[in-house]
Amino acid sequence: MRAGRRKTLCLGIVAHVDAGKTSLTERVLFEAGVLDHPGSVDAGDTQTDSMALERQRGITIRSAVVSFDWRATTVNLIDTPGHSDFIAEVERALTVLDAAVLVVSAVEGVQAQTLVLMRALQRLGLPVVLFVNKVDRAGADPDRVLGEVTTRLSPEAFALGQVSGAGTRGAAYLPFEVGTTELGELRSTVRGATAHPVLFGSAITGAGVTELLDALTTLLPVAAPVPSAVSGTPGPPSGTVFKVDRGEGGRTVLARVRSGSLRLRDRVEVDGRAAEKVTGLRLFDRGRLVSVDEVPAGRIAAVTGWSSARIGDRFGPVGATPGAVAQFARPTLETVVDAVRLSDVVGMYSALTELADQDPLIDLRRDDGRREIAVSLYGEVQKEVIAAVLAEEYGIEVTFRPTTSICVERVVAPGAAVQLIGTAPNPFLAQVGLRVEPLPVGAGHEFALEIELGSMPPAFFTAVREGIAATLEEGVHGWAVPDARVVMTHSGYYPRQSHAHATFDKAMSSTAQDFRSLTRLVLAEALVRAGTVVCAPVHRFELEVPEDTLSSVLGELNRHRAVPLETTLRGRSAVLVGEVPADAVHGVQQRIPHLTRGEGVFTSGLDHYAPTTGAPAERSRAQPDPFAQIGDWSRIQRSWPAG
Ligand SMILES: Nc1nc2c(ncn2[C@@H]2O[C@H](COP(=O)(O)OP(=O)(O)OP(=O)(O)O)[C@@H](O)[C@H]2O)c(=O)[nH]1
Ligand SMILES: [Mg+2]
Fold first, then answer.
1. Using CA atoms, how far apart are residues 499 and 508, in angstroms rounded to an integer?
2. Average pLDDT over the chain, rounded to whole?
3. Of the bound ligands, which one is closest to the alpha carbon of residue 206?
4. How many beta carbons lie within 10 A of that of residue 556, not counting itself?
5. pLDDT tens across 96-131, in order?
6. pLDDT digits (tens, 9 = 90+) for 223-233
7. Residues lining ligand 1, judged by CB closer than 6 Å?
8. What's the burial of 643, exposed, middle or buried (CB within 10 Å: 0-12/13-18/19+)?
9. Is the confidence at residue 321, as pLDDT, over 50?
10. How remote is the CA of residue 15 from the centroid of ligand 2, in Å?
11. Which of 83, 436, 520, 639 has the most beta carbons within 10 angstroms of its beta carbon?
12. DSSP per residue, 471-490
């Protein structure tokens, strides 16, 4: 059967760290005949954990794609990292999936990240099949875990079979009988993501794995090449970029083709930008990456030649690819990176820029004034990854300053400012008046007009909006203002004018740049008058410790500014729920094993932002200070009282 005719399925394997995703991927490749023998995470020879650091540490850091055939279906499988520091990698993978396999350990059961992932999958409406793994391991309790799945993850989860000999090497999966009518119903509820089948097995012994593959390929929706709505023919290619690699073959873009066929030498518009030529094209096919002339809809392509493509970009006609992004919480921490050798500073800048480009885990903030570069982080493990990649791939050694929280600013009250055209100290050929107003948490940015839309050319409104977006990124104290409404109250410009016989004279006519710059100035002034409060990220934590260690644990929590809100006893353990500042999480985490004989289990996730006490934390600006543009006037403006 030709590749284009086969049904295709793009599946993600997601789970809490160590649940067995990479081992399961390996086992699946073996069962599908791609591998002669399954590799092992512990020996460091799996297909998908191919980075040196992944092999050393036995954890997945980057998502990786494999492909295999199972009966009439070609399956693309994306093995994702489970560690919460690498959640951004999962987020990107989710944009290209037809469905997900959520792995839960039969020993540890439902864990913190399992919940986060299930919620994200549900928000996206993706079908989910659960695989309760490690039934062979001592302590495996499939019934208890099924109970946790139905109570904590979804009441719509139901078992497709059961386990015999749980907790032993001989543990086996015994599927229930399913009649044809039942199968029909099952299929439609699973595809509609209203019910979630649960299977059991072991990635190591292989129990339940072929049954899992059968369930996936019979119950889940499969992508057939989508004909274009207009002509009924396959139409131009469209799809989504979800990964950028910079390996030996240069910059390779991984993209899922959603409709049409992507061909070698095609010129394709990436994210609405200028057309980029496909100069190299490879396809994930039965465990290998093979050079091809064409990648049909449904499959994953490795493209070279798309130099400007970034992760998350869509390609093809605008609007052709529905894009869904899971939107996990943004990173709440950051750290400044320093090159050990002075001669590496410039190289480190470009290396980090290159890494940020291929890797959404690395979000950079350059402070050219201080000649510093900061990276945002989900957690401390990311520092290790960045350091290892810089050392291995670029030969650059770096150190990190202490991790700090990424705060936000909240607008206190409405504040307004206006700069009239042709009136000092306004240095720009533009007139802008803005009022900024608070909005509730999570509302985002709103823009409204109290002037006529026809009062200025559209390009100037666009420039004003750009100026607003830039200013809200750095608030009054250098932090982003996530929620605010900005109302434009005044506008004015000098139309294109020319001296007799001369052409356009920039000195007499307003430009979009005038509006961008003046907007930054006016909104900065309005924000100072409105007043903002700096708020820091706070995590909610759950900590289970042996009861007899409770008092020393409480003392330690206190030292790290963690506040327990509830304590309950569960057998011989105490379970504490409380709040801890994001930048203190790592400190607590490190101390817990020592205080609890290694038995304490600490999990946490971003909960909310709380006002900081004392003088507001100031963050250095990555953009030029808008007030600096006009000399002395800046001091007068800044000394105005807030409010
Ligand atoms: N006994 C047993 N051990 C397993 C099974 N699956 C995985 N393991 C072990 O569990 C550990 C973690 O397995 P991985 O496959 O790396 O887990 P993962 O979910 O890919 O981990 P991350 O990608 O780092 O989140 C390894 O030591 C595996 O050998 C299983 O079914 N049975
Ligand atoms: Mg893994």
1. 9
2. 88
3. 1
4. 18
5. 999 999 999 999 999 888 988 999 899 889 999 999
6. 654 444 433 44
7. 15, 17-23, 41-42, 58-60, 81-83, 133-134, 136-137, 202-204
8. exposed
9. yes
10. 9
11. 436
12. HHHHTTTSSB--SEEEEEEE
